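Please, structure for the following, as tokens.
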Amino acid sequence: MRKIVFYHEHNDKQFLSLMQKNLSVQYAVTMTGENAIITTGSGTDLLIHESIGLQTIQSPETILVFSEHCVPAKPLHIDPSVICIASSGNTDLLKMLADTHARVITCGMSGKDTVTYSSKSDCAISISLQREILNCSGQAIEPLELVFSLQEHYRSYELLAYAAILMLLSVVCECPKVDIPIY
């Protein structure tokens, strides 16, 4: 079973909604949090857990996604096999993650970021993977470009993190021929 942990400081339901609506097209998504457990979609099992105060992640092959400005109050204990997705602008979090030895994929607008975007309009965003990454299965994903057709407004970081998730889960492993709709 694939696992995603969404770590945030405040009630951030927009990103959870983005993941649930779009990933449930290909997965049986079970979302867990403090107030509910919801399963939608069909296919391979995918667990998405939201957390505000998690401190230990000793779960191999887990994707740990941090909200854009999240900085945990206490040091994290993360298994080195965990793949973290973080905003490159969140330097305090990146310093904390450096001590864990977990793999980190940065998302942002810097030339040093792993995932960035080259253009954005009200109805589409073009996202670039700027360097090779290993997905959750250990396969190499070469640099590529994704174009998302947007039906709702999402913050740039949310879309970059979502694109990273698609690549890590092997939903996208090469440049698609058509725009990918985001609901």
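The two ends are 24 Å apart (CA to CA). The chain has a mean pLDDT of 92.
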